[in-house]
Amino acid sequence: MSTIRDDHEVARDLAVEAGQQLMRLRERNGFDEPEVLRTLGDRVSHEFLFSALGRLRPSDAVLSEEGVDDPRRLSARRVWIIDPLDGTREFGEAGRVDWAVHVALWENGELAAGAVSLPAQGSTLSTVDPPWLPEERPAEQRLRITTSRTRPPDFVRRLANRLGAELVPMGSAGAKICAVMLGIADIYIHAGGQYEWDSAAPVAVARAAGLHVSRIDGSGLTYNRSDPYLPDILVCRPELSGMLLASIRNVADLDNAGPHAGA
């Protein structure tokens, strides 16, 4: 790969190649020792991506879930934010396809490029060619909210009950946001805390695809901060955002009011 390659293509190609390496690792090792497989997956993908970015973009900083945080990134103009294996639990389970590789570029305060590879699903969504978002969803169709398959937050359950929505359990945050882009779900909401690498790449692609992306109070998402922790996130079709933000406020108000609220 040439160092003059377009950033969008670099993000896509590196995510794809890392995903292919992870698929081969799964095939070679099998699933008899899932923790060993997960540890290998995190390490192999991180080492590949970190090395490739060092070669292709030597002047850029890197923030990786699996790497040591380099404080120089805070003064850098360009920072690659990567999650070498998002959905590590699912990666170590036979038959699971809801895991991903995230590669994003933050530049001058904004996400500039991104790619999410879903290797076990045989697809990659990226800012090279953002997915097409259907203009309308059927009005009679029940809303679908992607949520954690192992740790579904009570807040999301209460919101789903208020909206009469269906919960769609999945693993990786990237897989969940991609599900919204692909029309498998309508909403991804998370209020249990995550980190910048969990969402940077899928958020970059979701924005390019025309989805609404924000904190659950409607404020913007910011990246490459000194503390990479992100408390919450909302990704949805744009026409749903106003209704959802109002519903989220109502659920939060009831939570804050205590057990007798609404009686």
UniProtKB/TrEMBL annotation:
Coiled-coil boundaries: none
SUPFAM superfamilies associated with the record: Carbohydrate phosphatase
Keywords: Magnesium, Metal-binding
GO MF entries: 3'(2'),5'-bisphosphate nucleotidase activity; metal ion binding
Residues reported in the UniProt entry to bind Mg(2+): E65, D83, L85, D86, D198
Cofactor: Mg(2+)
InterPro entries: CysQ/Inositol_MonoPase, Inositol_monophosphatase-like
GO-annotated biological processes: 3'-phosphoadenosine 5'-phosphosulfate metabolic process; sulfate assimilation
Protein name, per record: 3'(2'),5'-bisphosphate nucleotidase CysQ
UniProt source species: Thermobifida halotolerans
